[in-house]
Design a protein that fits this description.
The protein has about 500 residues and is mostly beta strands. Among the domains are: about 70 residues, no CATH class; about 140 residues, no CATH class. Helix content is about 10%, strand content about 50%. It has seven helices and 30 strands. It has a 17-stranded antiparallel sheet that branches. A hairpin with a 2-residue loop joins β22 and β23. The two termini are about 30 Å apart. About 0% of the residues have low confidence.
Length: about 500
């Protein structure tokens, strides 16, 4: 069991902020029975409710707001307490079969079963429950599910010292039953061959899943104010309560993955190892929630389900909008993972080079029936999918001599476009996003088996992230950001120094 308390340093109480900003000068005409001093500045609400604790907030200037006003408009009470429980029972066996059918070796097998029960309960603050906070208006969560599954795996040598040094077959299967969504099967088939001392080949095909979590199934939702378009009138409505809810009918996401790769260890370059792995992933039933804008569009297109998410009062005024996650998106992505390592003596020590990176060839996405959108190499996004440059890699060199270790690392993020479907000078003035490189330094000195001094400098040259004025979707709608915080270093130069002690 785990318990988590979320206590914010400051979260604005919406009505308190409104009261504090609505400040007036007290005059003989408005003082009433408040007892406030004539000529003083007070909250308008205090004139009729002298004990409400409101303090006027001056929002113009740095450090001019009074401590009383800051304390009044913010709260630091726990806005959520979460208790998670998990019960697990599992049994498994593994070993080798007593016979060798191919002359290459006895197959190794493993099998087992597992039972898991997961549940969660959250308690939220009265302010959050009343949607009084500017953010973090979480609804309560209460729910549980159980999982029963069995699995089996086999590694079977097929060839040994034939036209290749070795050829192995791998197979694995798992049957899982979820109390919320029923039974699902996952499996994997693979081949690995050590062709010779220099070359190893590997490939596999698998069907994998990701089951919805407790929050996606049972959360009471997150509530916030929004300004959607009313599908009945076609006009924008302000101060509508938008609720991003859970969905107990969600199914597991399913991914079909095929991969093939090669590992090179050329004997004529001692200490060098390289690997290249191509992959293609087809993900279906991705869990995502529609935006308010998309919900309006789907309703206006005649889909009654989405029209039902708009709730009106007796006078036909839009009051609530419900946004619920669904298995309504898909993703097809392919690319290349690559890695290289080389170690050699240098002086009295050794130097090790390490390269690791990825090139994403395509990332075709679709959600809620929209046309497929390839965002590989684009800073745009669709729904909850993320995009970014096609190429990124890290290259480091580490020198070690006795107790001293030092590392120089370079991080490279390739160029990109704002939108793959835009043309510079036609759809936008400049559709290009430049490549970025960062340099990091690491060092440590071990005084003894128990004491080590270490230090690091990230982004040595304080390289700024590229300016990405807009992150736009295929529909050319945009949101303003200074840059893409998920792709680039936004902190600048960062120093760390410390001592590691062990006993």
């Amino acid at each position: 069991m785990s318990r988590v308390r979320l206590t914010p340093p400051h979260i604005v109480v919406t009505q308190n902020m409104t009261n504090a900003l609505d400040a007036v000068r007290v005059t003989s005409a408005n003082v009433g029975a408040s007892g406030l001093a004539i000529g003083s500045i007070a909250c308008r609400s205090t004139l009729t409710n002298p004990t409400n604790g409101c303090a006027p907030l001056n929002a113009f200037g740095d450090g001019v707001a009074s401590a009383a006003a800051v304390n009044y408009v913010n709260t630091s009470q726990d806005y959520e307490t979460m208790v998670l429980n998990e019960d697990v029972a599992a049994a498994s066996m593994q070993g080798k079969l007593p016979w060798d059918l191919t002359g290459a070796g006895a197959p190794a097998i493993a099998f087992g079963a597992e039972y898991r029960k997961e549940g969660g309960v959250t308690e939220v603050s009265p302010l959050a429950l009343a949607t009084s906070l500017a953010v973090a208006n979480f609804g309560p969560l209460r729910g549980q599910y159980h999982i029963e599954e069995g699995f089996a795996e086999i590694n079977a040598p097929i060839l040994k010292d034939g036209f290749v040094q070795s050829l192995d077959f791998d197979a694995a299967g798992r049957i899982t039953s979820y109390s919320t969504s029923g039974m699902v099967e996952t499996w994997k088939l693979g081949l690995t061959s050590q062709v010779n001392d220099d070359v190893k080949l590997r490939s596999f095909y698998s069907v994998d899943i990701r089951a919805p979590n407790l929050a996606e199934l049972f959360s009471g939702g997150i509530y916030s104010n929004s300004s959607p378009i009313d599908p009945r009138t076609g006009k924008q409505v302000t101060q509508v309560l938008s609720a991003t809810l859970s969905n107990p009918n969600l199914k597991p996401e399913v991914a079909n993955t095929v991969s093939g790769g090669v590992v090179l260890t050329p004997h004529w370059i001692d200490g060098l190892q390289m690997s290249f792995d191509w992959y293609n992933i087809n993900l279906k039933g991705f869990i995502t929630s529609p935006s308010a804008q998309l919900t309006t569009q789907l309703c206006q297109a005649g889909n009654q389900y989405y029209c039902d998410q708009f709730v009106y009062d007796g006078n036909g005024v839009l009051k609530y909008l419900y946004l619920m996650p669904q298995n309504a998106a898909s993703l097809i992505t392919s690319g290349l993972d690559f890695q290289a390592d080389y170690r050699m003596p240098l002086g009295s020590g050794t130097i090790a080079y390490h390269l690791v990176g990825n090139y994403t060839d395509r990332r075709v996405q679709s959600a809620f029936g929209a046309a497929p959108f390839d965002s590989a190499g684009s800073m745009s996004s669709v729904g909850t999918y993320t995009s970014g440059p096609k190429l990124h890699f890290n290259l480091s060199a580490t020198y070690a001599e006795g107790p001293l270790v030092g590392t120089v690392q370079g991080r490279f993020i390739g160029s990109a476009r704002l939108n793959n479907y835009w043309v510079s000078g036609v759809d936008v003035d400049d559709n290009a996003v430049p490549e970025v490189a960062y340099m990091d330094l690491r060092g440590s000195y071990k005084f003894s088996d128990n004491i080590q001094l270490y230090g690091a400098i990230d982004n040595v040259f304080n390289t700024p992230p590229p300016s990405v004025a807009i992150l736009a979707s295929q529909s050319n709608s945009s949101q303003s950001f200074g840059t893409d915080t998920s792709s680039y270093d936004t902190l600048g130069r960062l120093f760390r120094l410390g001592v590691r002690l062990s006993y």
